[in-house]
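User: I'm putting together notes for a lab meeting next week and I want to include a structural view of one of the chains we've been expressing. I don't have a solved structure, so I'd like a prediction I can at least talk through. The sequence is below, exactly as it appears in our construct file.
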Amino acid sequence: MANYEAYKLVSKNKINLNKNVFSFLLDGQKDIHFSNDIVSIDDTQSLLLASGNFLTTEIVGANSYSCLLFFFSQKNINDFLLKYGHLFNPNDLNKSAASSPYFLMEKDNFIIHFINSIQQIYGLNQTISQKILELKFEEIMLYLADKYGQSFFVYLHSLLINEREFSFKMVIEKNLYTSLNIDEVAFLCNMSLSTFKRKFLQLYQESPGKWFQLKRLNKAKKLLLNNEATPSEIYMDFGYDSLSNFSTAFKNEFGYSPKNMMKT
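Assistant: Thanks for the context. Below is the predicted structure for the 264-residue chain, given as structure tokens.
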């Protein structure tokens, strides 16, 4: 929880948010530029922001730019859905809806009173127990679920899906230039090989075998071009069991053998 204030225009501030957050705007205007969207709010609105990167422009209002921030984790969302998931229709999750990095809320009397209660807690200048914060989180979440209904639950579920996709992609990226084969990468993702292939195709629009091979061969090509290694030194690092198989794959992709890539 944090109370943020600014007294002059802050333009296109780079934000790297590692937790989700309720952004309750108290004074001024906020413009947020996401990778695929732009949203502007004033002090009659609030936002639930998903973790990630974005640019913010903060415009001073009557006295300042003022915003109350209430952070929460993916685990908090998961716990809430486990406890109150019976309140929504799971069939709605199958409806196609574009994933959004934010959920816009109109500031009504309940939210105003909620903000006031958070400010009073924040103003105590003492350590607040985690249990109290969890209860306040549950309070606002239940109210929003009651006010916005299925659309709010669908949005929360999309955050969990995004988190799982992020974890999946992290495993892919960290093992891209290793000697691991597709079956071993699938194991690290806690998936069967068939499930892994379906998930990979959904996210990358290409089969994992072809995608990994092309990425690894391009990396090998760069190393050879810069004379940083020889074919015999790197073929195993990129998952090939023999220099012959590496050379064949390389030639099939680029039209010449890896030896021809090395500068003399």
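A couple of points you could mention at the meeting. The chain has a mean pLDDT of 88. The chain is about 45% helix and 20% strand.

User: Perfect, that's what I needed.
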